[in-house]
Amino acid sequence: MPDMPEIIGILKEQAKAGDQGAIKLLMDKCYPSLKPQTLPVTVDPGATLNDTAKNLITAATSGNLAPDVAAMLTHAITGLAKLTELEELSQRIARLEEKK
Fold first, then answer.
1. Distance spanning both ends of the chain, measured CA to CA
2. Is the pTM here over 0.85, yes or no?
3. At what angle do helices 49-61 and 67-99 cross, to 10 degrees?
4. Angle ∠(87,93,99) on CA atoms, nearest 5
5. What gap in Å lies between CA 69 and CA 74, rounded to an integer?
6. What is the distance between the alpha carbons of residues 62 and 82, in angstroms, rounded to a whole number?
7. How big is the CA angle at 67 (ends 35 and 50), to the nearest 5 degrees?
8. d(Cα 74, Cα 61) in Å, to the nearest integer?
């Protein structure tokens, strides 16, 4: 049975001869796949969560921010808004219960 360097050598020869399967196998196993990387972004936060979300959408539609990044950040803002709402409701309920 051939050893690994010999197998790779055979695959290289087959790839040089135009064997698409050998090319794919070498590329898949010998070179890491490129993965998208998100760079840090700077966005004007705005006065409110709503303004911040609008700024993100504007940045995406003007090409200053990738649409998937804008969507991810807008989703995070939505989650923050829900948490803020729950916290405010909890505080209001606590104040009402103290008054009783």
1. 85
2. no
3. 170
4. 140
5. 8
6. 28
7. 135
8. 14
Q: Which residue type occupies 59?
A: A
Residues in the chain: 100
Tokens of 87: 């916290």
Helix (H, G, I), strand (E, B) or coil at 82: helix
pLDDT digits (tens, 9 = 90+) for 20-69: 999 999 888 888 887 777 777 777 777 899 999 999 999 899 998 889 99
Q: Report how far residue 39's alpha carbon sits from residue 37's, in angstroms, rounded to the nearest whole number.
A: 6
Residue 79 CA to residue 29 CA, distance in Å, equals 40
Domain residue ranges of the chain, discontinuous segments joined by +: 1-35, 49-99
